[in-house]
Structure formats: structure tokens, C-alpha cells
């Protein structure tokens, strides 16, 4: 009897963004260049760059002297939203 193949409902670019954030949280990977991130995580340089710029825009990562790092943030810190939540 043939088993049904499990569907993958993930969104690749979201998965890449989470992977990059998690990698930058690992002590030995705390500061990495674009090329190091791309090579280490096996994500294309173009996608890596675009994900990092998006995360930077949302104030989750920053680039310092060509190295990317996660910004210190707690869950209680306000996260800027792209829309107004006032009603």
C-alpha cells in the first residue's frame, strides 16, 4: 500500500527569514557577513540580502561594519507595525 506524501504548507522565504534570525542568535554566528550567512545556510545571496534588508527595516537586525547581527529585543518591546492599529 502506497503512503500519501505529506504536503508542505510552508512559505520558503518566511522559513529563510526565521532560519537567518535563529542562526544569528547562535553564539558562534552572532555577527556574520552576507556571504557567510548565505554560504552557511545555503540560501542564495540575493534572497539572503533581501531577507536581511526586510528584517533591518522591521528593526530586528542591523548591519555593523559589514556584519549582520540581531538587535537586542524583548517580547515586551514594541514592534513597529506597518499599519495603524488605532480604531
Description:
Helix content is 39%, strand content 9%. It is mainly alpha-helical and 87 residues long. The chain has a domain at 12-70: Arc Repressor Mutant, subunit A, CATH 1.10.10. The chain is built from three helices and two strands. The termini are far apart.
Keyphrases for this structure?
3 helices, mainly alpha, 87 residues, two-stranded antiparallel sheet, 39% helix, Arc Repressor Mutant, subunit A, 9% strand
Quick rundown:
The chain is built from three helices and two strands.
Succession of helices and strands? HHHEE
Average residue pLDDT: 87
Question: What spatial form do the alpha-carbon principal axes imply?
Answer: globular
CATH topology of the domain at 12-70: Arc Repressor Mutant, subunit A
Q: Which homologous superfamily in CATH is the superfamily of the domain at 12-70?
A: Winged helix-like DNA-binding domain superfamily/Winged helix DNA-binding domain
* Uncertain regions spanning at least 5 consecutive residues: none
What's the Cα radius of gyration? 16 Å
Q: How much β-strand is present in the residues?
A: 5-15%
Amino acid at each position: 500500500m502506497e503512503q500519501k506524501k505529506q504536503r508542505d504548507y510552508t512559505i520558503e522565504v518566511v522559513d529563510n527569514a526565521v532560519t537567518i534570525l535563529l542562526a544569528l542568535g547562535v553564539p558562534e554566528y552572532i555577527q556574520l557577513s552576507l556571504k557567510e550567512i548565505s554560504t552557511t545556510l545555503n540560501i542564495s545571496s540575493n534572497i539572503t540580502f533581501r531577507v536581511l534588508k526586510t528584517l533591518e527595516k522591521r528593526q530586528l537586525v542591523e548591519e555593523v561594519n559589514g556584519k549582520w547581527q540581531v538587535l537586542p529585543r524583548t517580547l515586551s518591546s514594541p514592534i513597529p507595525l506597518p499599519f495603524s492599529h488605532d480604531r
